[in-house]
Amino acid sequence: MWCFLGINNQSFGGEDNDYYFDPSLIKGNSLSNSELQQFDYKQKIPPGDYKVELYVNNTFITQVTIIFKYNLLDKIQPCLQPNQIYLLGFKKSPINIKNENKCYFLSDIDSDIISSFNYSQLKLNLTIPQAKLKSKNTTIIQAESLDSGETMLFANYNINQYHVNYSDNIKDINSTYLDVKGGFNLGLWNYRQDSHYSYSNSSGGQWKTTRRYIQRAIYNISSQLLIGEGFTSGQLLPGMGFKGIQLSSDDRMLPNNIRGYAPLIQGIANSNAEVKVWQGSNIIYTTTVPAGPFTIDDLYSTNYAGDLRVEVIESNGTKSSFIVPFSAVPESVRPGYTKYAVTAGKTRFIGDNNLFSEFVIQHGLTNSITLNIANQLAKGYQAVTMGGVYTAYFGALSFNTTFSHAELPKNSEETGWKFHASYSKTFQPTDTSVTLSSYHYSTSGFRSLSDTLNARYLSDNNVSNWQDKILRQRSRFDIVLNQNLKDYGNVGLSASRENYHNSNGTNDQLQFTWSKILSNGISSSVSIAKMSNSLASSWYYDGQNADKGKSQLYISLGLSIPLGNNYNSPNLSFSTLHYDGENNYQTSLSGLIGSDNQPISYGLSYSSENQISQGTLSGSFQTQLPYTNIRATTSKNKDYWQVSGGIQGGVVAHRGGITLGPYLGDTFALIDAPDAKGARVANRNDVVVDRFGYAIVPSLVPYQYNTLLLGTENVDSRVEINTPDKRVAPYSGAMVRVKYKTSYGRPVLVTLLRKDKDSIPMGSQAFDEDNKIIGMVGQGNQFYFRANKEKGTLNIFWGESLNQQCTIDYELPKDNDQPLIQLMQVCN
Predict the structure, then answer these.
(1) How close are the terminal C-alpha atoms of the chain, in Å?
(2) According to the CATH classification, is domain 140-217+593-743 in 2.60.40.2610?
(3) pTM for this one?
(4) Which CATH architecture fits 9-134?
């Protein structure tokens, strides 16, 4: 009898943390000093470069390649390069770095660092006093840890076939639509193309490519470069299509906790204190700070749901608090951050390939102030926008003003101003949110670039009265109110009014909504809307405005009832809509059937207008198969019968062949798991490994770690996935191959017997006939391996001398259904 102690984690914090196995304390005579040395601390980790998961105070930081080498005391220690020391997040640089190419041991960086290294999982955790660390963006990922993927060719397809048969003599309608979006990658460069084919029995078929472009990420400046056909952002200036080049900031490259807008919090603690940040009755942030000034700059964006209360709890139990205003509008930017977009090229869809340029810059100056600047230039046109956002206790107010100068046909020129203001505030005591925005054009001479190009187009095509064909808005006013009534539901009120320089009258809309979830999941809703249009008809191409002077009232009621408590239980709903003296009624039933791995969604409905007996009966179903999505709809009433069907999915061509899968996002993964047919990715029922060992994960979140866990429930028992969980952080647009190492063979547990009845040392290694390690001896002289041959010879080694090795010849039973084969073999 003998006992054995194994230690997985290595500690580097001090110089006395080595461990050693004393042979005199181990019973049995089969273990020599040299055999035990392989388990000593200093022999456990060979020197070299290791790609490890770096943690600080048990918080994941990033994946990084770290050098492990001998220090002056002849012990293997992690040695960090200057850029890796920066990742630790010290408030002040702990050492004076004179050589950027040199690496530094932990004891040289800071004597208070304590570390542990899990060799089997390649995880290095550094424990550092919190007082020495600055606020940490815990989700930052270094460029070296991002995966740009490999060169693949992909295409998404969406095919739909439509048929209508009329009961009278109207000709039947048949149409086909095919949409194809695809591309390929070369390193960080991504090529994308959008095309479609449409056919109808009345107009024939046509193939058209609508967009082509290449793009790449520039991670060190958190930006995206696009060359080809794209769209401007629509921030501050009207959005438009272009063919050219664009460089813009990409918030997806920022850590989660600094995306969007949130204020900077600054305060003072009199001792080591706990700081809690409250929004309403919820704690949204907590941390511990040392005595002195503190700063919190990594609050997650919280949808502008009201002011923040900061509570400081000192070590003696005393409490203090202060309020930080928190209201925002879409233009709000965090203090110290900048968003921008620069575009140059030719216009698309409007005008005739006119050259233009545009830049937009938004900078968060302080908690209270965001500055906005934008400019747009084209031949005979210029627009300049300046403004910003001001946040205070009364809410967030945005104000921008734009000046335009446009050269129009007939040698005319126009200049004008546009003013835009918006306001947002959530009143926490009553849980009332207010969003108000107003647009005002002070003069009729203001023109957007699209207005100017449209005017030139109409004039060039000899359209009479072209000045009146383009609607020029004078003002627009919008207000949205939302109120939570708690047990009585939620109500909303919205209103808008707009008028135009070249048309009398106004266009008005007023809407009231109420909704509530009742007991047992039953929900109800009410909507009342009134719309009126008194605009003149001069700006309509046909000179007619059928809705002029007309006021319409819409009243809608809805009720939804779940017919069970399971997620796939049917749902019965009723709705009615009254408008223009007409009444529309609809009853529908929807739900899921089938297995959890492949559910089928279905829907049945009956709708009618005025007379319930003369209605339309409709049905639909949709399901996601492992390699495609299929859908179908049909409807029938006394006048027609309609049916349609479609399939949707993706296909990827790679160096291993062609793989089918679901419809793909711009960033996706190719699972490469040889022999693992039937394996599914956890929480992704539509991702199944095919018979060639491949599967497609249709979407990954770029610039974040995505964990892909491959399940073995439906995999052949002869296949083992050695490391079923993988983590990958892709660039946007990357096509990432995720390689899983698998072992193929029948599972075998061998119990070794010795003629001298001695034990074979734990840790002895088993080699196959090709001299490859296939297993390690554990307790009870047993070892596990997968046999890919029905019979063979294995060699067991626990030393270098001839009496420290033995050989077995095995032959497996012919019963292939055994989940685990157990053999007892004499080792000679």
Answers:
(1) 22
(2) yes
(3) 0.74
(4) Roll (3.10)
